Amino acid sequence: MARPVQHPHRTAPLLLCVECSTMYCSVAIVSTSGCIAEHSLISRVTHSKRLLTAIADLMRQCELDWQDLHGLAISIGPGSFTGLRIGLTTLKGICMATGLPLMGLSSLKALACQLPFCRVPICPIFDARKQEVYTALYQAESDSITTIMGPVVIGMEKLTTLIHKPTLFVGDGVEVYGEILRTKLVGKVLLAPPQQVFPKASAIGTLALKKFVAKSFVDPGAISPLYIRPSDAETNLLKAKHRMQTT
């Protein structure tokens, strides 16, 4: 059976991209000509129960086989510990099965990348709970995003002391800590449109394409989640060890 005629927008390289750092699960196929297809969904169901299905559905609808792809891209965080592990484990498995190169990208930078025409600093904030956020500061410049600060995990009160000029805030942390921002940073707070609240897989693809073209690859085994702070389990383990050493 003859394969379908090549779609005019399927220019090489073709990358499968995944973003699982928040409650949104986002999967995309991107190329140098743009985003070919994208699926994003917020759900309380764990990413492990829908990620592979979402990938398979997107590949099928795009009439793509694994041999049509040239690379894989995954967000490495910061964000949900569970979501990051699920996304990275899934993509590493696909990498091992296909031999495709795997690239890891910042979820915070991907979110800033979705606002390329912003002329003030961009501050993505993800709710890290415990009155803290995962954040960084970026500046959009032409077709690139420059890192000013970060990424870090920081208390909101402390973050507000670092902002000295009008800044655009974006991310799920805005809904949680918006009142603190408006109270502490009068006249300095700009808010991104609500549809930009989560990083999209297509934005991961935008960053990954530059790495792919530059052949900036690393051993997939060396790619690990960017947690920034230890998990609750690790913190509890350290506390337990400290108690044992002091008793």
What features would you describe in this structure?
- This protein is of the alpha/beta class and 247 residues long.
- It folds into two domains: 15-106 and 199-230, Nucleotidyltransferase, domain 5; 115-196, Nucleotidyltransferase, domain 5 (2-Layer Sandwich), CATH 3.30.420.40.
- It has seven helices and ten strands.
- The strands form two sheets. Strands 3-2-1-4-5 form a five-stranded mixed β-sheet, with helices on both faces.
- Helix 2 (81-98) links the parallel strand 4 and strand 5 (102-106).
- Helix 3 (107-113) packs across helix 6.
- The longest helix has 18 residues, at 81-98.
- The protein is globular and about 55 Å long.
- The model is unreliable at 232-244 (pLDDT under 50).
What is the topological layout?
Layout: E1 15-19, E2 24-31, E3 34-42, H1 51-61, E4 71-77, H2 81-98, E5 102-106, H3 107-113, E6 122-129, E7 132-141, E8 144-155, H4 156-160, E9 167-170, H5 173-184, E10 189-191, H6 201-213, H7 232-246
Parallel strand pairs: 1-4, 4-5, 6-9, 9-10
Antiparallel strand pairs: 1-2, 2-3, 6-7, 7-8
Helix pairs in contact: 3-6
Structure summarized in a few sentences:
With 247 residues, this protein is an alpha/beta fold.
Major beta sheet summary: 5 strands, mixed
> Within the CATH hierarchy, at the fold level, what is the topology of the largest domain?
Nucleotidyltransferase, domain 5
Low-confidence region ranges? 232-244
The named CATH superfamily of the largest domain: ATPase, nucleotide binding domain
Mean pLDDT rating: 89
- Cα radius of gyration in angstroms: 19 Å
Question: In which order are the strands of the major sheet placed?
Answer: 3-2-1-4-5
Morphology? globular
What share of residues are in beta strands? 25-35%
Would you tell me the structural class of the helices and strands? alpha/beta
The CATH class label of the largest domain is Alpha Beta
Helical fraction: 25-40%
Tell me the quaternary state: single chain
Number of domains: 2
- The beta-strand count equals 10
Named at the architecture level, the CATH assignment of the largest domain is 2-Layer Sandwich
